[in-house]
Design a protein that fits this description.
By secondary structure, this protein is mainly beta. The chain has no helices and eleven strands. This is Chlororespiratory reduction 42.
Amino acid sequence: MALSFASLTNFSKMQSGVWYSGSMTPRVTVRCCETGKEPQPKAKLQVGSPIIIVEAPKVIKTAASMPCLRANAGLVKPGDVGRIVSRKPKDLWAVRLSIGTYLLDGKYFKALELEE
C-alpha cells in the first residue's frame, strides 16, 4: 500500500512555535493506493506455533537476556523445525530450535502444517 501526502497550505505566521496559515484547520490530502506486491501477513503464526526453516540466515542472534550475534556456521539449516516463543517488533520472532532459542526474521521460516 502506498501513501502520498500533499499540502496546500501557505504558512504565513507563527503562533506558539507552530506555523499557521490564518485558519486553524490543516489542509492535508492523503491518498491510499493498492499495489500488487504487498507481503502476506503471517496471521497463522502465534506463540506456540510450529515452524520450519526455509532459508538459513547468514547471522543468528540468541534470544537470551544478554544476546550474542554470531555467524551461522551450519547451526540453523533449512528444514529445521521449532516453535515460536514470542513476537518482537518488525517481523522478528523468538524461535525455540533443538540447539537453542534464536531471534529470526519472518522471511527465514514459515508455519508448519501439521496433519492430524
